[in-house]
Queue: 4 jobs
Job 1
Amino acid sequence: MQEDFHYYATYCAAFLAGYDHYESLDICYSAQFVDMCSRTYLSGIKARTDAATTQLQLEMMDARTDIMGLQDITRIWASFHFLPKDLYATHKFRTRRYMNKYRLICGPNSDLLVKTVELARAGTLQAVGIAMHVLADTWAHANFAGTPSLVINNTTPDFYEIYTDEEGKEVEKKIHFRHNPSAADDLDGDNFTNSLYQGNEDSVMNLGHGRAGHLPDYSFIKYRYYPAWGDYHELIKDNPSDYMHAFAQMVYAMRYLRGEEESFEKDTYAWDVIEPYRERIDSILRKRQLNACADWKALGEELSGREIPDFDVNEYQVEYELVNKEQKREAFLGKFIKAALAQKGMVSSEIYKSGNLLGGFVKELLIKGRLS
């Protein structure tokens, strides 16, 4: 997902869940900041770099892919962007090494999602925002894993967009990929950018949904493709439906986090709360555009009657840098760092307890997980 959903749509969901304007801003800022909080950023403000929630392209170019490097990559991407659906999934006639990666495939409504939301209940608004980022990405990034793997994340080049024509019939058209990361996706020409095929199993080019480009991040698109983990059988991804479920589940989750719901249950959504706005939301989700920020922002400002400022990655940097060490814990970024460490530690620990070493070792995590 992108800023349009993680920032503006999350603001809308938070406000509908009952948070006030300023609380909603803290939540949506934290949700979007997950995509910005890299080691490079944390090093620049002299914060602990193991709280990183993402990796920049330049960082990925230098990333190691030995076992320690793979564990580091997996801790970040599986914890925040590709939450595993089933750490105990079974698949006949597969090696243990294969299964360790197969079990990291992302999907919604997992036991780990319940743990993620419950973890945020005892935390801050920053923790809520992080949890909402993770929740939303379980829908957008479903069927890909947050670890480099050719046998899991590769696809064939055969992607087809499914859309409704002027006569109301579902038709298809082939999607074309190119490998220029600096080129914007071209909706009119059906030209999209994806990662270059790499035959090395552990190449960072085979991390997450790189082989599908940004298709999982666009709410409007429905498409079919052929993933490696599914033995290259057809799979249809319906983003408008998935994003609607993500939004309704965020509202439900945040109602739980506010104490409006007694428990957080899987496959449960606040359809009743969003019903007055569902048609409007659906029209935003289905609008064919690369960026829906303006539409979500307009809805959010109509809901609250307040202005939603543009996201500024450096908004809280000065506050964090100026306060002393003891006060950093209570600064906005200090609270975000603490929540990020808690989420990363919880997910990595669950991966380890499942018998999978791709998330690292519990002893190491316990040592690093303390907020100094």
Job 2
Amino acid sequence: MDYIEVSITLKPFRPFNEIIVAQLGEMPFDSFTEDEDDSMVKAYILEGDYVVADVQNAFNQFEGLVEISFTAEKIEKVNWNQQWEDNFDAVEVGDFCYVRAPFHAEKPNFLHEIIIEPKMSFGTGHHQTTQMMIELMESIDFKEKSVLDMGSGTGILAILAKKMNAQYVDAIDIEEWAFENMKENFDRNNTVVSAFYGGEEVIIDLGKQYDVIIANINKNILLTQFETYNGHLKKGGLLLLSGFYVTDVDDLLAAKELAEYSLVDKLEKETWCGLKLQKHG
């Protein structure tokens, strides 16, 4: 499915850029970019989820506080590789993990190296949420563990789990282009990961119990899928979450399905947050 790019001009830009992003984050928008020089926020949403009246209503509440104008344009599914090569830098997470594209030079002094050809999929290692998930994973002993990576995108976190000696890893994404991209990246990194195309129904159909579930997805999807995660995570298992803002944490932790979890770790990068939770044994 194609995406809609909504370009939003704000005057003044700050602090309304963060307010608008938080507001749209409550809707099915799943990624954002900002250009302060042009006073612009760009928000991305699946074409089938875009309702112009909902966006306009979200902005109406700020009338008199900030000047807002916006345009929307459909972005077709094209190969973004050349743009990535022009703008894509390698990512270093401490000395633990080095994430690079095939055209970057190798670096030997990292515990793990992951090669990602990003195309259109989320998960190149650049976004704060992906980096926090990598940092949360560093402290886990994955040896002989069963792992689910929900919303896998490029497959970066699934690849890392397998490189950290997970017994097996299941990776799921609802976007067909992400599904194809992650399979290519699994082969590129010589990692054996089972790739599945679909949503939470795949978890139910597989019927497995996992030691670790990884979900780097937005707040609204997490809230709707917590029941499924909970039903397929072993007692004592770990749930790694990101893809949401610091201001969303209280709402997430208040979900009834998380009543039987302990908060093990919490990371923050700018306005984003990552959580490591453990299910009671």
Job 3
Amino acid sequence: MTNSVYDYDLVVVGAGSGGVRAARMAAARGARVAVAEEGRLGGTCVNVGCVPKKLMVYAAQFADAFDDAGGFGWKSSAPAFSWPDLIAAKDDEIARLNGVYRRLLDGSGVEIVEGRASLADRHTIVIGDTHCTTEAVLIATGGRPFVPGVPGAELGIVSDAVFTLPDLPPRIGIIGGGYIAVEFAGIMRGLGAEVSLIYRGPLFLRGFDDDVRATLAGEMVKRGINLCFNMEVERLEELIGDGIRVCGPTGDEIDSDLVLWATGRVPNTADLGLEALGVELDGNGAVVVNEYSETTLPGIYAIGDCTDRMALTPVAIGEAMALVETLNGNPTAMNYDNIPTAVFSRPQVGMVGLTEDKARAAGHEIRIFRSTFRPMLNTLSGRDEHTMMKLVVDRISDRVLGVHMVGPDAGEIMQGFAVALKCGATKAQFDATVGIHPTAAEEFVTMREPVEE
């Protein structure tokens, strides 16, 4: 890969999870690598995504633990929650991780160049007043929050800003129906805010299994979250005194102290100079790539959320690993089959494989196994919350096509079943597996009777 004609063999634009992994692994193979980053190292996931959000999920879960403790004999007064203390602790952890990423890059021999990068030509990168040349370029600039262009949109904030709020708002309106909206609804409600989730469709989490979506909606209502489905947002208005009003076209109105736009993310590809060089972008601004992450201009590559594939941190890392193999003469494509995912809602969602609808659409003749039950914890706590588990099985081959769950620790449980689906596990093999008792996860290997069609 090394070519002494250029300053570097590879310049990575963006130091998120995918970009950092690609840079480190390429350097480990002997390449001369630089990473350009205008913000903090670690990208969305570390700074304003997965990591701080999960820390907030943990904080919200303590509310359940305190409530449930009385059923197990613990007697105490209700504790007080401090939002500033949570944010300060979160900031300390993110700063620590920023340092970890810097040490990883430094230790790998990767040069970190701070500043916004753009491409002047196929081999030239401009970073501020600095120009450098490179054999190959990797675009790993991630995504950014999308805000619809409705009147008053500027009155709301995006998810990035949640992590620096000075105080917890007493009332929050969350607009959107994806995982970001659902997760923040659970977090804010768990920490004590009144929450309204506003979505234009009939049910959130489009693309997830319908039983998962319906089960989660029911459980969120039990937690006191106001679900406002089928509500288009026409405008935001500032109320006299304090507050923001979300207005729909049919007279629907939701008043809050804070409005959060959680209406999706778009690729962060503006002003990189890509289109001028002939690098194709799709209508959403995503970089168009082939199976080896190469753009329409040979030698320029893209991975992660700036492409229109799967916007998940482990996927970006997997794409990075495949790309390094490709750059070293071993063309390798990322395999996107049976990639598990979790939504850190309250309760959690975990899934891997096909939904029931997607299995049918793909032509499979299927059997459905489904179980809904009260977790053992809730038998003494008295909490009215149920877990739902579901298997989608091919009737002909007996292969398990999809595993779906709503309930505590769904993300942790799903990781092991993702391995099983990667190995092509059948329902008979699930049935032959001895469960761990008493756990919720054992239900996946004890469901015997399919749902009546």
Job 4
Amino acid sequence: MKIDPESNADLSAQIAQAIRDAIVSGDMIVDERLPSESELADQFGVSRSTVREALKRLAAQSLIRTQRGAFGGAFVNRLCYHDAYGQHITTSTLLLSMNDVRFETACEARYAMERACAPLAAQRRTPRHLSMIRKEIERQADAALSDEDFCASDVALHRALVDAAGNPVLSYQLAGAVEAMQPLMNMITFTARSRGEIVRLHSALLEALADRHAGRADTALHALESYTMTLGRDVLAARARRTGAP
């Protein structure tokens, strides 16, 4: 593991990257103990405080864990999909908010990825997944449900659809799509949408999954996409008219 002292990049960031690369490449394996701070400081020719900052960066990415005691130190962590969801969702949310992603772009991407899950979800869904989706539909049919809770229920329903595919890699990749893109779309469309229509479309999706009918599940998602796209365009056009934007 090496760093470039002449580089403009922060030394702690370089050290963190070097250790990360060693972990990703398999040169350092799960549960392997890292050299001590003193050893790393000597190896990289930096101060212990710089090494300590690098280790903090790695711990924040869940790549290492630390433990105290006679057999303590820093160890390569076993990263699981569940632990990585939060970081993935945060990154996706920041990308969307900072890069002015168009509504139609986000909608298109999200539904394209969700439809990839539909055939697997129809095949692999369990009674638990169906129960989760049914529970959210019942919540959405409650007229007393607040807009905020309706949006949260919407996210939970689609997350259950994704998880029903039974593929942890898909679930991880779609965590950002469902839990970052969908709230963005909800913020734009919630004032104009018909809850009754959404409940109807969600119910059609549930029935297709219950019947293990991939084609009908895909049709239901296409209908949801079309409805969401239409709502988004109408809302954004109305805003433009109010503000006089071209």
